[in-house]
Amino acid sequence: MSQGASQSRVKFGDQYNAWLRHHRLSAADSLFRVLDNFVSSVLTWLVIGIALALPVALDVALDNANELSAGWDSPSQISLFLADDIGADAARALAAELEARDDVVSVQFVSREDALAEFSELSGFADVLASLEENPLPNLLLVGPADDLGGAATGGLRSQLAELPGVAEAVLDMEWLQRLNSLMELSRRMVLAIGALLVLGVVLILGNTIRLAIEARRDEIVIVKLVGGSNPFVRRPFLYTGLWYGVGGGFFAGLLVSSSLWFLQQPVSSLAALYQSEFELAGLGFMGFLNLLVLGGLLGLAGAWLAVSRHLSKIEPR
To answer: Residue 132 — very low, low, confident or very high, per pLDDT cuts 50/70/90?
Structure first.
């Protein structure tokens, strides 16, 4: 007498090996399908690469600008332009008075003669300036605020010095750098906003690409579900497809950014040499390129998961 079917428990090791084997097969099969449609895949990679390259390139440009402006972060200096009737002796007396203040670390007196000589040397108009009947430049005091003064306190010191008798004008020489830093912070936030929008666009592009792949394999999905394939089993190849598209897009983004920096390197170096600077553009580097690949892969997985979760549940055997 024959016995009926019997149940047996599958060992955990066998389940794990089957799960791992299916991951390998899904990754290899999805990569083959992506490469099999090479032209359309390259176009998809280019679209993703351009969308990722734009915010990354802007971020790299801001990093280079920050690196360039880092050398300008010298201590704040207040220039006191004295009135025309303030002579050298009165200017030195005022300098000694200012040096006694607790919020001032140094005071340098620049006479109008020294200022005119320096201006003549730097401007290249020595002949024109020599023809002037009188020196138009005033005596100048360069005041160095104490190191522990913040930006607001330094601005308050400038206001106090501007009200001193004999001071025609007080200029805080670092105000332009503070404006530059504020502009850089605004630009950084704009790059983040643009980057967020483009990242969302990449996810939607990948989601639509995976949706088309799902529709193209609808009959295959129905057959797999008929023989007992679970949703995770069916979902896995499409997730790997999204991963390959994302990694390829990140690779193309890295190539675009690196090529742009290489194209600009020589003109930037030539311009820096004219200003006696050794500044050179900083690129992505190996870690930056690797981060782009990882970011692209994660966005690919996110787009694929979004598309599969929405469309796969609608495909059921009848």
So the answer is: low
| Mean pLDDT over the full length of the chain | 80
Q: Which residues pair with 142 in a beta bridge?
A: 79, 108
**What's the gap between Cα 184 and its chain centre?**
11
Q: In 3D, which of 100, 90, 108 has the Cα closest to residue 144?
A: 108
* Exposure on the CB side of residue 243, measured as CA atoms within 13 A: 15
Q: Exposure of 110 by Cβ count < 10 A (0-12 exposed, 13-18 middle, 19+ buried)?
A: middle
Domain around 120: 78-173
Helices first, then strands: H and E counts in the chain? 10, 4
Q: What is the CATH number of the domain that holds 89?
A: 3.30.70.3040
Residue 118 lies in a domain: yes
Please give the model's pTM, rounded to 2 decimal places. 0.66
- For residue 104, the 8-state DSSP code is E
- Report CA-CA distances (Å) from 62 to 138, 273, 295: 39, 21, 20
User: Residue 133: helix, strand or coil by DSSP?
Assistant: coil
Domain count, the chain: 2
Q: What is the pLDDT of residues 210-241, one digit of tens each?
A: 888 888 877 777 787 777 767 777 888 888 99
